[in-house]
Design brief:
The complex is a heterodimer of chains A (659) and B (351). Chain A has 659 residues and is mainly α. Among the domains of chain A are: 163 residues, MetI-like fold (Orthogonal Bundle), CATH 1.10.3720.10; 228 residues, MetI-like fold (Orthogonal Bundle), CATH 1.10.3720.10. Chain A is globular, with a radius of gyration of 28 Å. The two termini of chain A are 39 Å apart. With 351 residues, chain B is α/β, with parallel strands linked by helices. Helix content of chain B is 37%, strand content 21%. In chain B, the strands form 3 sheets. Chain B has a 6-stranded mixed beta sheet, with helices on both faces. The two termini of chain B are 20 Å apart. Classes of the chains: A mainly alpha (659), B alpha/beta (351). At the A-B interface, α10 and α11 of A face α4, β6, α5 and α7 of B. The complex binds adenosine-5'-diphosphate and magnesium ion (MG). Adenosine-5'-diphosphate binds next to β2 and α3 of chain B. Chain A: Keywords: Cell membrane, Membrane, Transmembrane, Transmembrane helix, Transport. Chain A: This is Glycine/betaine ABC transporter permease. Chain A: It is a multi-pass membrane protein. Chain A: Belongs to the binding-protein-dependent transport system permease family. Chain A: It is found in: Cell membrane.
Chain lengths: 659, 351
């Protein structure tokens, strides 16, 4: 370096390679070399040896036991489960006649459906009325009333409790900065924790049953409520606040008469999320023995009763759509004024109608038992027929040939080879490669975090199973991208198709994840490809949704500029639209990966060999330590991708001047 | 124009001013009190900003007399809203004192403050600040409800003010069902519900389109003639200020540059900034004959009224050949103004 002017600044490395390139070459090089040298490596360098794995599981068990017994947490949980238990039993008594206090008879199904229809009408007109009423009529006619009410009895208690506690915590977070600073990181962690980390603690502290299910549900559904409440309160316009103060409000009046009503929309959006998360969780509590729709679906799928599974699936989907639409309609519902002199029954028309409907069906059901309860014999369930029909259809030669062909091709040429390859690679080579990917995406910080997380997973001692889990998720997400992106690109070309596709995706996202197993099981039965397929369907939703959103969000001037520059459609897509849409697409990709890590655990009951399998086994027992170690193995892998992809999206956004 | 009816001398100086602000400071930043205490005297707005603070209100001393309408003017960001919020203690001030009816409101505890607002103050906001989930009636009755008035009383009172602002028949409407002008009428009605002595209006008509604005100004003048409240009115529109003001305070960078009657502001701008600010104004429409009288002069002919604007006297000024024109003052005394000076105002070459 003689001529300082002609050369690049001294910080640039000599050989013309940037730091970035050298780090990448180093990391991926290490991974490749370690893998090539595998036959010559001692075992201790291929996998973390047994003796090096810290005894975390017994240690955690001991800590939990200490919390529970020595710290007296058990008394707290007993007290909670006492109150909660009474509430849930009361709901169970009213909804499906469980013989507990207040020992009334179950409400007639027709009365519930009638009130739901009136509620739908009030909130969103006749369409919503039809949906809400229809859902319950369908449920009753299909002979699924009891299961649905078992599920609902937990939701009607857990969702309000979660809502109220979330509201109070949200107000506190808004009121006291220090409290907000304290709970923010906790909420961030809670929101990344998948459902299965909630289940076993609930069981251990609250015993198997509805109480444990509702505690898990309450905690799981709460974080968004807290955040939405705080956001809403912060958004109240300053002049409205000042108007309240000038009106001479006391603090309590400010909160109850000014802030909370003004934050109504956000608080109700929070309620919507509470309800939807409650439903999702309640269905999944089937894994800890909570009876209801989830448990039935699980049982039916396990015994391959396709027809019944299908019917229950429809019920769950209808219930999800109904709850979602009702609560969303409430968000946008605005008060309308009445003309002067409107009589009171007209002002309260829907309340009167609702009570009248309820009383009417209550009375009629005494005379017409069919409107009270539909027995198994009377139900219209076509479970057997559908089952036969489906199995016949699946047994048709060409169908079977196709599914078998796909199964054969995927297993033999894609799944098994890649799986074996991943299992072959030494642990530290995988860690180096992961660090390399994170570095390429997000830079040094994500790379270090990724390396630390994966090393932790290695020392947790379930490496091979973790790799199988990783393999399923990544394969499925890659396939989802390969299939979903072209669909999204095609749909994004027309405004109508985009709107339609986003509507479908948004609706699909309200379904409890369980549902996505159904089509996969129907087509491929119980096999590894079923797991992949269910994840694929589940993750395609965010991929499509965010790709469309990203592409539609590209400013019109830019695409027009590209048109004027004479770009072909493909050039425009490649050079203008995709790069600009990439940060948004990355959000979808990230969500897809997170969903995949949830789904892979749910799908484990089909019979996989991965972490999920082991995790589900722990749910039946009391090994909280093992459950945590397994759960966090997955959480750490998921978080690695989450952090790297977010860092990448952030950098892209800044590079494009969008941030 | 109201300026004509107002004679500062009419207000007895022995009367305690309704609002009295002395050396009021309001700084925004990390530790404003400590900063103000350590700040060298005479620090400029820019110097304060370089230290990381914004001088919302900078050493303002001003008094508002009973029944007076003070209009605060200035460009956006000059501190008008901040100053008014100091008067009602929506902002706690950083330095100085503010007295309302002789009481230092800085020393009030929460309860006293709430009582003050419940009994004496009303405020109207630029973007209305209505509660979206309440009907017109409920919005107007809101301050009454807060102070615990019983349902029937507050309904009656609310209906009364709703009638006053011309919103009869809309009592059951929700704010989003009303036009901007109607919404601001609700805001005005709400601020009047408790029969306040002091009325703050922060750019109440700025969000409305010009035609509606004009109509609302007329409406506002009608109300003020009826109610005779002490008013602090903020605007950034000079025409509006001239239409309404007894006195105008012109603000820049948190400080009051000049506070005087409209006539004197246009005739004798205190600073270069005020001169620039008033340059575009047609002075003849602002200045009244009474302001131009000089002692020791006697004019000839029919006297003009002190409240006549120079513009309205244009023909007389041009045609009359005498040096001085007699002016009949508000108290009936006959004085005179020099014709040349009045012509100067008319022709726009200064006084
Ligand atoms: N709460 C606040 N925090 C920080 N700065 C503020 C705050 N309120 C007002 N300011 C600043 O004080 C200055 C005066 O604002 P304001 O009184 O609203 O001006 P105006 O009403 O004349 O347009 C502005 O520079 C504004 O940015
Ligand atoms: Mg302002």
């Amino acid at each position: 370096m003689t001529d300082a002017v002609a050369h690049p600044p001294p910080s640039e490395p000599r050989a013309g390679l940037s730091t970035r390139a050298r780090v990448l070459i180093g990391l991926f090089g290490a991974a490749v070399i370690l893998t090539l040298l595998r036959p010559f490596l001692p075992d201790a360098l291929i996998r973390v040896p047994e003796w090096a794995i810290p005894p975390l599981e017994p240690a955690l068990d001991a800590i939990f036991a200490w919390f529970q017994n020595d710290l007296g947490l058990i008394h707290v949980t007993r007290a909670i489960s006492g109150w909660l238990g009474v509430a849930i039993d009361a709901a169970a008594n009213l909804l499906y006649g469980k013989s507990r206090w207040p020992r009334l008879d179950a409400l007639p199904w027709s009365a519930v459906a009638g009130v739901a229809a009136v509620l739908g009408w009030w909130l969103g007109g006749w369409k919503l009325s039809l949906l809400a009423g229809g859902t319950f009529v369908w449920t009753a006619l299909m002979g699924q009333w009891k299961w649905t009410m078992e599920t609902m009895s937990v939701i009607v208690i857990a969702a309000p409790v979660s809502f109220v506690i979330g509201l109070i915590l949200g107000i506190s977070a808004w009121k006291w900065k220090r409290f907000e600073r304290a709970i923010r990181p906790i909420l961030a962690i809670l929101q990344t924790l998948p459902f299965y980390t909630y289940l076993l603690p609930a069981v251990i502290f609250f015993k198997v049953g509805p109480t444990a299910a509702s505690v898990a549900t309450i905690v799981y559904a709460m974080p968004p409520m807290i955040l939405m409440t705080a956001v809403g309160l912060k958004k109240v316009p300053p002049e409205v606040v000042e108007a309240g103060k000038m009106a001479g409000c006391t603090r309590w009046q400010m909160l109850t008469r000014v802030f909370i009503p003004s934050a109504r929309s956000e608080i109700l959006v929070g309620l919507n999320q509470v309800i939807m998360l409650s439903l999702a969780m309640v269905v999944l509590t089937a894994f800890i023995g909570m009876p209801g729709l989830g448990a039935k679906l699980l049982a039916m799928m396990n015994s391959f009763k396709l027809g019944r599974s299908f019917e229950i699936g429809i019920t769950i989907v209808l219930l999800a759509i109904t709850l979602d639409r009702l609560s969303k309609a409430w968000v946008v519902k605005q008060p309308e004024h009445f003309e002067k002199g409107t009589p009171w029954w007209q002002r309260h028309f829907f309340l009167v109608l609702g009570i009248a409907t309820f009383v009417f069906f209550l009375l009629v059901a005494q005379v017409v038992p069919y409107l009270d309860e539909i027995g198994r014999r009377q139900a219209f369930s076509m479970g057997k027929e559908i089952d036969t029909a489906m199995k016949t259809a699946l047994a048709w030669d060409w169908v079977q040939a196709t599914t078998n062909g796909i199964r054969y091709f995927f297993n033999l040429f894609i799944l098994i080879p890649t799986e074996n390859a991943l299992l072959y690679v030494p642990t530290f080579a995988v860690i180096a490669a992961v660090a390399g990917i994170c570095y390429a995406l997000g830079g040094a910080q994500p790379a270090i975090i990724g390396a630390v997380f994966f090393t932790t997973v290695a020392f947790f001692g379930w490496w091979d199973r973790a790799m199988l889990t990783l393999h399923s998720t990544v394969t499925a997400v890659l396939l989802a991208v390969l299939i979903g992106m072209p669909i999204a690109i095609w749909a994004s070309r027309s405004a109508r198709a985009s709107r339609g596709a986003i509507f479908v995706c948004d609706t699909a996202q309200t379904f409890p994840s369980f549902i996505y197993l159904l089509p996969a099981i129907m087509l491929f039965g119980i096999s590894p490809i079923t797991v992949i397929l269910s994840i694929l369907i589940y993750t395609m939703v965010p991929v499509i949704r965010y790709t469309i959103e990203g592409l539609r969000g590209v400013p019109v001037e830019l695409t027009e500029a590209a048109d004027m520059a004479g770009a072909t459609r493909w050039q425009k897509l490649k050079n203008v639209q995709l790069p600009l849409a990439m940060p948004t697409i990355a959000v979808g990709l990230n969500q897809a990966l997170m969903f995949a890590f949830f789904m892979v655990i749910i799908a484990a009951f089909i019979g996989t060999r991965d972490i999920g399998q082991e995790l589900q086994r722990t749910l039946a027992g009391t090994h909280l330590g093992k459950n945590f170690v397994l759960g966090f193995s997955v959480v750490f892998m998921a978080l690695t991708f989450d952090i790297a992809i977010n860092a990448w999206a952030e950098r892209r956004r800044r590079a494009l001047g969008l941030a | 124009m109201r300026g004509a009816d107002f004679d500062p001398r009419k207000i007895k100086m022995s009367d305690t001013p309704v609002i009295s602000a002395r050396n009021v400071w309001k700084l925004f930043g990390a530790k404003p009190e400590a900063y103000l205490a350590s700040m060298p005297a005479g620090h400029s707005y820019e110097q304060i900003r370089e230290d990381g603070y914004i001088a919302g209100v900078k050493d303002v001393s001003i008094e508002v007399a009973r029944g007076e309408m003070l209009v605060i003017m200035g460009l956006s960001g000059s501190g008008k809203s901040t100053l008014v919020r100091c008067f009602s203690r929506l902002h706690d001030i950083t330095g100085g004192t503010i007295e309302i009816d002789g009481q230092d409101i800085g020393a009030f505890n929460e309860k006293e403050l709430i009582d003050l607002r419940r009994s004496k103050m009303g405020m109207v906001f630029q973007s209305f600040g209505l509660l979206p989930h309440r009907t017109v009636l409920e919005n107007v009755a809101f301050p009454l409800e807060m102070r615990g008035q019983d349902r029937h009383d507050r309904r009656d009172r609310a209906l009364e003010v709703i009638r006053l602002v011309g919103l009869e028949g809309r009592e059951e409407y929700y704010p989003r069902e009303l036009s901007g002008g109607q919404q601001q009428r609700v805001g005005i009605a709400r601020s009047l519900a408790i029969e306040p002595d002091i009325w703050f209006l922060d750019e109440p008509f700025s969000a409305l389109d010009p035609l509606i604005r004009r109509e609302m100004q007329d409406e506002f003048l009608r109300l003020q003639d009826m109610l005779g409240k002490t008013i602090v009115f903020i605007t950034h529109d000079f025409d509006e200020a001239l239409r309404l003001a007894d006195r105008i305070a012109i603000m820049k960078d948190g400080a009051v540059e000049q506070c005087d009657t409209p006539d004197r502001i246009v005739l004798n701008p205190a600073t270069e900034y005020v001169r620039k600010f008033t340059e575009e104004i047609d002075k003849a429409r602002v200045v009244h004959a009474g302001v131009l009288v000089q002692e020791g002069l006697t004019g000839e002919g029919e006297p003009v009224a002190a409240s006549d604007t120079i513009q309205s006297l244009a023909r007389r000024l041009v045609n009359d050949a005498s040096d001085a024109i007699p002016v009949k003052m508000a108290d009936g005394a006959i004085k005179a103004m020099p014709r040349a000076e009045a012509l100067g105002v008319l022709l726009g070459d200064g006084a």
